[in-house]
Predict the structure.
Amino acid sequence: MADAILSLQNLSKSFGALKATDDVSLDLKPGEIHALIGPNGAGKSTLINLISGTFPPDRGSIEFAGSDISALAMPARARMGLARSFQVSSLAHEFSALRNVMLSVQARQHRNYRFFGSVMTDATLLDPANQALERVGLASRAHVPAAELSHGERRQLEIAIALALGAKAFLLDEPMAGMGAEGATILTQLLSDLRHEAPILLVEHDMDAVFALADRISVLVYGRIIATGSVAEIRRDPEVKRAYLGDHE
Ligand code: ADP
Ligand code: MG
């Protein structure tokens, strides 16, 4: 089995008396989509926040791309290629999809401020930005302002930005939320392809998407992982059925 790109060891996090994350260990391997499911309040978003560095764990450690990142702040983790979506608010809505990608790359490169005119003709920004848009299926929408993109297209744009920034792994917290059927289908296909470039830890309520996409599923209940396995294993696990799946069968 390939070495994990992301590995959590015995993570715990309490909010007051509430154990939101309770001794969680899991990993993400190259090429896989590892889905994290569980009822509302199970601690899925808390876990994503711990991994991305929004707040520190009380206990436990996080390894990413061969380093212990437990003590790193969020921007440092992001610079290493740990991509957390979807922060749609980070888009500049008045600018085109292409310009959004280019500005993100430029910002990451800490270059001196330049006028947009020169940014837009800089091949070192333009070429990777166009490739990233092509990669997510937005090439024909490159010059459309972000504000005019559909909800699903904005999520594609966020992924393009993450790819242009060199994402090595994705943390996606309910990417299907608010999507229409068509958008969900497009995003499902995109994520399915994307796993081979950058594996995905996928928190998702849409069980159709989870069952279609996941290589492995971990089930979180009251902050604890009660099962990890393949789609088939999780679907027939009696404890999972009782605790969570219920009538998703
Ligand atoms: P999920 O994403 O699985 O629905 P969350 O991780 O958002 O669950 O929440 C897990 C529990 O932790 C919930 O009871 C929630 O109210 C609590 N919680 C989450 N974030 C905070 C916070 N920043 N401060 C206090 N309580 C929190
Ligand atoms: Mg959540």
Q: What stands out?
A: The pocket of magnesium ion (ligand 2) is lined by residues 44-45 (CB under 6 Å). The chain has a mean pLDDT of 90. The CA atoms of residues 61 and 87 lie 25 Å apart.
